[in-house]
């Protein structure tokens, strides 16, 4: 490759020329030819600017991909750039060219003046679009998918955040950050067994690394996107990522409800149901789906889509409004834990791409998390008083891995049973905060939405600059690497201090600040060993998503919990070949699954990993424990450990009880009947059969649970009496010791 054809980064050449976007003009690879204007979007690893291509005086979009912050490896980035430059389809956003500026890859592409569908929904249609607009948007998107699939590409990240709209109603599918080529061989082929995507939109087969997947995974995501456009959010979006994964695998596929979604046509519902079939082989191809009556009757986008943004302010002003709202939300959460929770949840809610997880660990974590609906004030008679089990569960599992990280992270699991001190936040279970405001459709969101039919843009509540900065300035959480060297555009850099990127409130007042500077602001290098970095935005693609707590790492565990802290070094990136990451964890310390010698086993009925009582340390206590001549100083730690384990067991039992209660509650809510049979073409219309089958399964499940609960209760009673005996012994021993000392 010739020098002028590309730029090398760390040994990789980047193809730069391209005709993407159907254009046939030449775009230079000189950054000085581009004048960056307003920021119009941002994702996990990129910020997108409206810009002017000076030689042609043409408006373009410049996506500045931070190579330091980028989750993908350089090969993937190069592939994205190449894919984009080769694309030539009216519904797929192609790249005019791409080149490297400092540590950024600049991708020059057509500017889509109305931004993403997600932005639009967040700002003006929090409850989703009307059917005619959805039909048009989906049809254009499906054409894009058909084109990509025909050319051997799986997009792997189809979602409203990646569907861009132009002011003339044009619809284009964007973001090839995680796309894969179906013709890849060897390692590249194996990459399709890797778990990437955005949780809510990911097909079940993508979540099960052993199964492998193909372009049908895009059809599933397309179905989820249809629901997202219909409701304003993706199904399961209120749950933490790990729960989403579990629900996607275990639950019946989501769909449009025949009762709740009355406003939508039968053919729309049918189309969605066809996409959301768990068996990928039964999903239609994009080509076939295009022939569905729903798309045949779809209106041209210039009729149905264009009117969506007729009365809205410009894209950058909308983005700014949403950023302010984000900043306000972030500032309102002043606690460090809230910041970390915000990171995880915002990454999740904004639909960050290219998530890499340890699926087994996620399943385990997910099984520990209860739905907010399921959380009940369960109290247990324990000792002298009543113990609030929700709190106790938090105490036991207050710390957990942040699964929302797109960077390499350590898994920190702490068994800290510290009574109430271990409690981080009210309503936090298993490290996942569960509160009433913990939904995408929170009031605050509604309030600050810029509704189309309303005449005013309702901005977020005013916040002081101090507040807005507070959340971003904590040294222990912002471990950013500030890039001091600017892009190769000296003429465009204003010689003033560069404010932190997240200081949106400040920035909004400082309109003169150059976008290039913005591109230089706090750039966080991936953390390969430490806890998660604090987000410098509350959310990105979703922008207005409320900050929810989630599985954020607890960065600063208190001293007590540190005593029992276990760190598992390693990345969450797991392929089908390496799902078993953490064999080296002391099993008695971390309640988690491992393929061999696990202290946990899976309950067939609830999917929870439960302590195998025979492997509990109680049964492996050193012989000395039974020897009353042992000094108390040796016995005490063992007994404390025993006590902790017993508490964990109790919590697990309560969790089981909770599951059982939820199942029963669901039953009750169905008037003594079963949960609704999902609308699913797999039922083939045989509703009665499905109900009976479901009923049978549910009953079996309840029986299993009851049996399991009885077993565990017995085990617990046995453990309790052991504990009491041991306590008596320790009292005796200490009495003896005292006597000895005195004599
Ligand atoms: N060509 C464009 N014209 C206008 N806005 C754009 C364009 N490309 C992207 N955007 C906006 O910028 C946002 C982020 O872009 P993009 O999704 O490509 O970044 P990313 O870092 O790859 O995001 P993700 O988190 O999904 O991986 C988009 O959601 C969209 O709102």
TrEMBL record:
Residues annotated as binding ATP: 63
Domain Protein kinase: 34-295
Record-linked SMART domains: S_TKc
Extent of Polar residues compositional bias: 474-486
Basic and acidic residues bias locations: 500-510
Chain segments carrying region Disordered: 435-557
Keywords recorded for this protein, A-Z: ATP-binding, Nucleotide-binding
A Pfam family annotated for this UniProt entry: Pkinase
Highest taxon of the lineage: Eukaryota
PANTHER family (UniProt xref): SERINE/THREONINE-PROTEIN KINASE FRAY2 (PTHR48014), SERINE_THREONINE-PROTEIN KINASE FRAY2 (PTHR48014:SF21)
Similarity section: Belongs to the protein kinase superfamily. STE Ser/Thr protein kinase family. STE20 subfamily.
Official protein name in the record: Uncharacterized protein isoform X1
Organism: Coffea arabica
């Amino acid at each position: 490759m010739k020098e002028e054809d590309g730029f090398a980064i760390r040994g990789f050449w980047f193809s730069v020329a391209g005709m993407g976007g159907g254009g046939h003009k030449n775009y230079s690879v000189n950054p000085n030819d581009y004048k960056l204007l307003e920021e119009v979007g941002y994702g996990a690893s990129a910020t997108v600017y409206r810009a002017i291509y000076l030689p042609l005086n043409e408006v373009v979009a410049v996506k500045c991909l931070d190579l330091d912050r980028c989750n993908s490896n350089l090969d993937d980035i190069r592939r994205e750039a190449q894919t984009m430059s080769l694309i030539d389809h009216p519904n797929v956003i192609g790249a005019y060219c791409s080149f490297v500026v400092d540590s950024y890859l600049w991708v020059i592409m057509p500017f889509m003046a109305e931004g993403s569908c997600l932005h639009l929904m967040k700002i003006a249609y929090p409850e989703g679009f009307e059917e005619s607009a959805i039909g048009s948007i989906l049809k254009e998107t499906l054409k894009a998918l058909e084109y990509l699939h025909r050319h051997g590409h799986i997009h792997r990240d189809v979602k409203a955040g990646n569907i861009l709209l132009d002011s003339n109603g044009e619809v284009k599918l964007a973001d090839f950050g995680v796309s894969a080529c179906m013709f890849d061989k060897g390692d590249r082929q194996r990459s399709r067994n890797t778990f990437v995507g955005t949780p809510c939109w990911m097909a079940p087969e993508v979540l099960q690394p052993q199964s492998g997947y193909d372009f049908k995974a895009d059809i599933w995501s397309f179905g989820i996107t249809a629901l997202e456009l219909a409701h304003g959010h993706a199904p399961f979006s209120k749950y933490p990522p790990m729960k989403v994964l579990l629900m996607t695998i275990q639950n019946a596929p989501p769909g449009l409800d025949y009762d709740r979604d009355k406003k939508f046509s039968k053919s729309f519902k049918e189309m969605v149901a066809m996409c959301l079939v768990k068996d990928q082989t039964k999903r239609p191809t994009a080509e076939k789906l295009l022939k569905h009556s729903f798309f045949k009757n779809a209106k041209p986008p210039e009729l149905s889509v264009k009117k969506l943004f007729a009365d809205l302010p410009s894209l950058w002003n909308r983005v700014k409004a949403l950023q302010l709202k984000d900043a306000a939300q972030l500032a309102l959460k002043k606690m460090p834990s809230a910041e970390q929770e915000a990171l995880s949840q915002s990454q999740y809610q904004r639909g960050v791409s290219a998530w890499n997880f340890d699926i087994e660990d996620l399943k385990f974590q997910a099984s520990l998390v209860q739905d907010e609906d399921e959380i009940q004030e369960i109290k247990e008679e324990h000792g002298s008083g009543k113990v609030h089990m929700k709190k106790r569960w938090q105490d036991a599992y207050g710390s957990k891995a942040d699964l929302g990280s797109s960077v390499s992270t350590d898994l920190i699991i702490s068994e800290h049973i510290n009574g109430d001190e271990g409690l981080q936040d009210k309503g936090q279970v298993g490290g996942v905060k569960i509160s009433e405001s913990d939904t995408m459709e929170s009031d605050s969101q509604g309030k600050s939405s810029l509704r189309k039919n309303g005449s005013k843009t309702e901005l977020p509540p005013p916040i002081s600059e101090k507040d807005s900065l507070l959340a971003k300035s904590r040294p222990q959480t912002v471990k950013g690497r500030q890039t001091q060297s600017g892009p190769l555009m000296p003429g465009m850099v204003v010689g003033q201090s560069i404010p932190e990127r997240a200081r949106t409130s400040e920035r909004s007042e400082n309109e003169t600040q150059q976008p290039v500077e913005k591109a230089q602001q706090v750039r966080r290098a991936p953390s390969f060993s430490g806890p998660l970095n604090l987000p410098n935005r509350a959310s990105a693609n979703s922008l207005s998503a409320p900050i929810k707590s989630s599985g954020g790492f607890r960065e600063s565990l208190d001293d007590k919990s540190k005593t029992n802290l276990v760190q598992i070094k390693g990345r969450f990136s797991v392929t089908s070949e390496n799902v078993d990451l953490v064999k080296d964890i002391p099993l008695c310390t971390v309640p988690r699954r491992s393929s061999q010698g696990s202290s946990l086993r899976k309950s067939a009925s609830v999917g929870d990993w439960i302590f195998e009582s025979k492997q509990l340390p109680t049964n492996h206590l050193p012989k000395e424990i039974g020897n009353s001549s042992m000094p108390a100083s040796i016995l005490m730690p063992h007994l404390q450990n025993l006590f902790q384990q017993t508490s964990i067991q109790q919590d697990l039992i309560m969790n089981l009880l909770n599951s059982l209660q939820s199942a029963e509650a669901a039953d009750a809510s169905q008037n003594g009947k079963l949960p609704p049979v999902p609308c699913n073409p797999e039922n083939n219309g045989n509703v009665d059969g499905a109900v009976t089958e479901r009923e049978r399964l549910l009953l079996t499940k309840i029986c299993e649970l009851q049996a399991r609960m009885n077993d565990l209760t017995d085990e617990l009673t046995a453990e309790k009496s052991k504990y009491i005996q041991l306590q008596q012994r320790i009292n005796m021993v200490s009495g003896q010791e005292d006597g000895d000392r005195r004599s």
